[in-house]
C-alpha cells in the first residue's frame, strides 16, 4: 500500500460488537451493544453498511455487502480491563496486563482525609453512583454545605461533581489536578479523575458539557508519541488529549459532543497536514450507553452515518480513515449500566483500495501497528499490522 499522508482514526466510544470470549470474567455474558441498537428498529446506517460493517465477524445481522468499499475486522481486547483509558491506550499500541484499581465500596478514609485537607472542603457521597442520580441525591446538600460530591463507578475513576454557582469550572479543574496527584501508585492510581460540573435548581439539576478527564500518564512509545517524534502532526480531538494526559500531540482540540467532534473533523480534513488525527466521539457512551437509551443510541449512529457520507467525499487518495471503538456499553444489557466487555468493529477506508476482511484480531493494538505502517513510521508495540 502506498504511504498515506494522513490517518483519521475515529473512536466511536462504546460501540461494542458482541461479547468477548472472556466476557464471563467481567459479568458481561450476553452483552452486544450493536445488536441492542439494531433491535430498536430505527438504525439506518447505509454508509457504514457500504463500507462493510455487516461483513465483520458476528455483525452479519446488519446486512452484508458483496463489494464493500473498505477493509474490516473484529477486534478483541487483550488488556485486563474494559475502561476508556486502557481501551484507548491499547488502540495506540499498549496492552495493559494489570487492571487499574477500582473502589466498589468507595474510597478509603485515608484518601478522603487527604483530599478534604488539600481542597479545604468536605466530601459527600463516596459511593459508586450514576452521574445524574448522584446530583439529584446530593445536590441540595452540596449547595447548602459547599462540600464536594465525590463518587466512583465500576470503572477505575474518581469523579468530582460541583455546582457552578458554588465552585467555578476552573476551580473544579484545579481540585481534579490536586486529586490526580493524590490518586497515584499501584494502590490508588485510578485511570481517570473526572470533573463533573452541573447547574440548575433543586429538582432540576443538569450536568454541563464542561466535563474534563485527568488521566494517568500513559506508557512510553505509543502511536501518538511515534507520530509526533517523526516530525508529523499528531492531533487530538475530543477527550483524546485527556486520555493520554496531554502527551504525544502537537495540537489538541476539546469538544463537548459528537456534533462538535464531527465538525472539527470536517475542518481538519480541509487543512493541509501530514500525520494522525485521533478523534473520540463520546456521546454514544456518556449520553446513551450509560443512560440506557438504545433508541437515542441508534439515532446517534444514524447521525454519524449521515455525516460520514459527506466526510468520505472530503478525503483524497492519500488519506486513510479508520473507525473503531474502545469497549462496549450495551444500553439494553440487564446486568449493569457500566461498560461491557465486547469485541469492537474496525473499518479502514481509502479511495480505490481493495477490500480485505481481516477476520477477528487479537488486540486493539493491531490498529496502532497498521496506522504506523500506513504512515511509514517505525513503532515497536504489542500489535501486528494488518497490511
CA-based shape = globular
Arrangement of strands in the largest sheet: 10-9-11-1-12-13-2-14
> Strand content of the residues, in percent?
15-25%
Number of extended strands: 14
Range of helix content: 25-40%
CATH homologous superfamily grouping of the largest domain: Alkaline Phosphatase, subunit A
CATH topology of the largest domain: Alkaline Phosphatase, subunit A
Report on this model:
With 387 residues, the protein is α/β, with parallel strands linked by helices. The chain folds into two domains: 6-97 and 217-375, Alkaline Phosphatase, subunit A (3-Layer(aba) Sandwich), CATH 3.40.720.10; 109-215, 2-Layer Sandwich (Alpha-Beta Plaits). Helix content is 33%, strand content 20%. The chain has 13 helices and 14 strands. The chain has helices spanning 33-38, 46-51, 84-91, 109-119, 131-145, 169-182, 185-188, 223-229, 240-243, 258-269, 283-289, 294-314, 365-375; strands at 6-12, 71-76, 123-128, 148-152, 157-163, 192-199, 206-207, 212-215, 233-237, 251-253, 275-281, 319-324, 344-349, 357-362. The strands form two sheets. An eight-stranded mixed beta sheet has the order 10-9-11-1-12-13-2-14, with helices on both faces. Strands 3, 4, 5, 6, 7 and 8 form a six-stranded mixed beta sheet that branches. The chain is globular, with a radius of gyration of 20 Å. 51% of the residues are buried. The model has no long low-confidence stretch (mean pLDDT 96).
